[in-house]
Amino acid sequence: MKYHHILSAFAAEPWALDREKLSAVTDFLLFKADGGVYTPEEVALRIGGGQKAQEAASPKGVALIPVYGVLSQRMTMMSDLSGGTSYHSLTRALHAALADDDVSAIVMEIDSPGGSVPGTMELAAEIRSLRGGSKPIVAHVNSMAASAAYWIASQADEIVVTPSGRAGSIGVYTVHEEISAALEKAGVKRTYIASTPEKVEGNETEPMPKDALEFVQARVNESYQLFVAEVAEGRGVSVETVLADFGKGRVFGAKELLKRGMADSIATLDQTLARFGAETTPAAVRKIKADNASKNGSAELLSAKLRSGEPITKREFEHGLKGLVGASNSEAERAARLYLKTDQGDPDETENAAALAAIDRVLAEAKAFPKTP
Question: Pick the residue with more confidence: 297 or 20?
Answer without folding.
Answer: 297
